[in-house]
Amino acid sequence: MIAAEIVTVIDIETTGLDYTTDHITEIAAIRAEVGYGGSIREIGRFQTFVALPDGVKIPETVGLLTGIHEEDLRGAPNVAGASLSLEFFIGDSTVIAHNAPFDLSFLVAFHPENFVCTRALSRLVDPDESARLADCCTRYGIDLTGHHRAMNDVEATLQLYAKLREKAEINGISYRNIVIDSEERPLKYVPPGAIVRRIKRKKLEEAA
Hints:
alpha/beta
């Protein structure tokens, strides 16, 4: 029987895709117990907007995509305060994120010992299928209403993890702390302690 585990699924929204120049606008997380057969018992939720540094604006295209605007961030904690609260919420649970290298690149002070990237997990379990969150959800019959808002994506990612975890464990597929690098989507950030696996022509080669 596959053992139950406590996980915290996280997602962030940002002003852009470059962690060296862009900034977090929202963080959401769900802490839950994931058990045998893909069962989920929710324990708690965390959500906060994040104040931007002085002078930083949300690009119009990003505002249209996420529905987050600068007035939503008024009175929100800065990124240091928000990150500290998130770490307290996570505790010693396993961190789950779809495209974990992206989320963790923005949370630079946070280095979880144990994490799972569900995008990488999808590539490992379903190597011939799209690993985009929306496509994964469609494939597994998971509702993803309001994509690109942090809590909506967290809810979907939690359900996706429960399903993919079951398939990986049954088939003996290693997936913890693994990130995927590929020619079509090269890694821009490698979380500390991550195992990098490179995909070329649908074959996995573990990097030294």
